[in-house]
Specification:
446 residues, mainly alpha, two-stranded antiparallel ribbon, 20 helices
Length: 446
């Protein structure tokens, strides 16, 4: 069932008011800049450095275990990375200006208006993740690069082009936001059709035009809506609603886009590789992943790319082809392939949750020590610097991971059945593929 949250006056007032969002933004921006400083000037020991601990343990835990599964793109509404660039672009911080945006305000090329570049940027980050996640200076360099790239793109291109088409985190969140039980939608599309000025898209004195370049009247899924709430502020007819809904509501209608299909393979495959590298017992694999630039690392690179862009899609294509043959379907293989790839969204999300449970619960104790000594300079600000490392809830880890992965498989099977009914193709081979992937992930984690 859907429930409109914005029908409650207090919730609607908080979402329309710019101050709560701005205060959260400022806190996030200060924390982001502090993580960069600690990366450059703090201890090189990753598990004692604020930048590593709070970006890759604390923030990652909140993002994967809470924010994405529950709030979808909620993180994007308070992300500090595009903030200074957005302020420069608009020429304002709080109140919408009466003039046009500053700088060049160019439109992003039509041929690049897809998520292939996001697929590429996530793949690049994933390839170097072993170093990024453990080396403070490398983490700081990556954060600075994203920060200034976002600022530069805001000064050249219109709206939040960096977030929509480039940011690797945005692509990750956008894919799995489809499964979240929170959405922003219009109440009555007929009102949008008759609205002359379209302030939700073009902006007005009440707010900015959609920073994500979305017309809310045509919004059907969460993938590209950043939940910035500007349309809620600008709509003169109070026709924008924030709703709760059943999980994976967007997945009821399968995707038809190949870039979105391959995003699902990238995320699914990366979660499995991360489990092998960070949690597995294979020392040679870990060494290859960490030895950037070496011959073993190039071997790791080729294996990584072959697994994500070759083996997984090929096996999946084979499963879809068998389903087509079993059903004597008339649908094109490409259409069936992209439709069934939608079923991998809940599976991939649960793979990431299962991996993150192990990674976070094993390393959460470092949060307390780095709070007291963020730079590793011998401080003890809160008296927690000497807290010894120990894993948390370790006896519950295996049951939790098993429950998550089995739940993800059942969720995927249900989604695959819906996709199969749309294209009139048997979902059984895709469910078999998903079962095999789940068993493999269980083996990697347990």
């Amino acid at each position: 069932m859907h429930c409109e949250l914005t029908r409650f006056p207090l919730i609607k007032a908080l979402l329309k008011n710019r101050w709560p969002q701005l205060l959260i933004w400022i806190v996030m921006l200060v924390g982001f800049l502090f993580a960069i400083l600690s990366g450059f000037f703090g201890t090189p020991v990753g598990n004692r450095n604020f930048g590593i601990v709070f970006v890759w343990i604390a923030w990652w835990a909140v993002l994967i275990l809470v924010s994405v599964p529950v709030f979808g793109r909620g993180w994007c509404s308070v992300c500090p990375i595009p903030l200074p660039g957005e302020w420069l672009q608009r020429g304002a911080i709080m109140n919408p200006p009466g003039n046009k945006p500053k700088w060049y305000n160019l439109r992003w090329p039509n041929k690049l208006r897809n998520i292939w570049l996001q697929n590429l940027t996530f793949t690049l980050v994933a390839l170097f993740s072993s170093v990024i996640l453990t080396t403070p200076k490398v983490t700081a360099i990556v954060l600075v690069a994203m920060f200034f790239l976002a600022i530069g793109m805001s000064m050249v291109f219109e709206r939040l082009t960096f977030c929509r088409y480039i940011c690797p985190v945005s692509g990750f969140i956008g894919l799995y936001a489809q499964a979240a039980p929170l959405e922003l939608r219009v109440k009555d599309k007929g009102i949008c059709l008759t609205c002359k000025d379209k302030p939700c898209y073009n902006g007005s004195l009440a707010g900015y035009g959609c920073p994500w370049d979305i017309f809310p009247g045509g919004l059907t899924k969460n993938t590209y809506c950043g939940l910035c709430m500007e349309c809620l502020r600008t709509c003169p007819y109070e026709n924008i609603a924030v709703n709760t809904r059943p999980f994976s509501d967007d997945l009821a209608k399968p995707s038809t886009r190949m870039d979105e299909a391959f995003k699902a393979f990238i995320m699914l495959g990366a979660a499995m590789i991360y489990a092998g590298v960070f949690l597995g017992p294979w020392g040679s694999l870990k060494l290859a992943a960490y030895s950037v630039g070496s011959m073993s690392w190039f071997g790791y690179l080729l294996a990584f790319l072959a697994f994500i862009f070759g083996l997984l899609p090929a096996l999946f294509l084979g499963a879809v082809w068998i389903g087509n043959k079993l059903s004597q379907a008339t649908a094109a293989l490409k259409k069936s392939f992209t439709a069934f790839a939608t079923a991998l969204v809940p599976l991939g999300l649960m793979f990431w949750v299962a991996f993150s449970l192990s990674f976070v619960l094993t390393n959460a104790a470092y949060i307390f020590s780095s709070l007291s000594d963020p730079f590793g300079w011998g401080w003890n600000l809160f008296g927690t610097a000497a807290i010894p490392w120990q894993p948390i809830l370790i006896t519950l880890l295996v049951p939790l991971q098993t429950l998550v992965l089995v739940g993800g498989l059942l969720w995927t099977a249900s989604t695959a059945r819906k996709a199969g009914s749309e294209v009139k193709v048997s979902p059984v081979p895709v469910i078999v593929f998903s079962t095999a992937a789940t068993i493999a992930m269980l083996g990697l984690l347990l």
